[in-house]
Amino acid sequence: MRIANLSGRVVLLSDSGAVDIERASEGRFGSDPTAIYGRWDEFRQWAAEAALPAGTTYDEADLGPAVPEPAQVFAIGLNYREHAIESGVSFPAEPPVFTKFRGSLAGPYGELKLPGNTVDWEAELVVVIGRTARHVSADDAWDHVAGLTVGQDFSERTLQLTPPAPQFSLGKSFPGFSPVGPAVVTVDELDDPADLDISCSIDGEQVQKGRTSDLIFSIPVLIERLSAVLPLLPGDLIFTGTPSGVGGGRKPPRFLRPGEEVVTRIEGLGELRQRCVPGTPHTTVSAS
């Protein structure tokens, strides 16, 4: 299944178009694109057995963030070996975890407003939780996954790395800094959900390329480590990290500029497209 948010309503996407789930289920399931994950097992059974109508055509510009209101958004740093090397740090012994605040979520296609001159790109595979996970072993972790989607972890590096205490969560949470989509794809749609090609390009120039099998901490291990600390809830998102090739790791550094288009692709999941435009400049206020 490919589950998406079309103009604020949850739909299934197919070759024929979009099927509105509330209408197709005659009201059994609502229209909320996030709430469907709270009834994941029931919904999956219905979708497998239902005689769904043909989909209707839609404008991809109307696709919103695949999961617009997750209770929690987790993000993992330094989770590809080559990215850790380009960042100049040792491989982590435990997953470095931060959050991207929910107000930064955006749909798969649209404009990215740049709040400064040091906005960087980070292509990411995003996990969507389908069942509450608490003290879940890695062996059982995939049973708690609703599906996977494409994400971008845009980062304003100046704010992110402000000393003496880095502001990872704020620097990565400007509006539009967390596009996800175009759909949540269930793992049965993929030949190997643990080994997908991932890439990012700017105006057609490939700047990142890797495979998700290169993760230092795999999806099952991430779910095991996170759920050992707190419950993972249906609809929660986990940004799993980015391959090498980010702008801040280049010599000299390269950052996004107005007019550039960022395209993020993951095999079997689709792509994101963001056109960079000027935004309101970010300024910091010194402590008095």
UniProtKB/TrEMBL annotation:
A Pfam family per the record: FAA_hydrolase
Record's keyword annotation contains Lyase: no
Keywords assigned: Hydrolase, Metal-binding
SUPFAM superfamilies, sorted: FAH
GO BP terms in the entry: carboxylic acid metabolic process
GO terms for MF: hydrolase activity; isomerase activity; metal ion binding
InterPro entries found in the cross-reference section: FAH, Fumarylacetoacetase-like_C, Fumarylacetoacetase_C_sf
Domain (Fumarylacetoacetase-like C-terminal) ranges: 73-275
Sequence similarity: Belongs to the FAH family.
Protein's name according to its UniProt entry: Fumarylacetoacetate hydrolase
Organism: Mycolicibacter longobardus
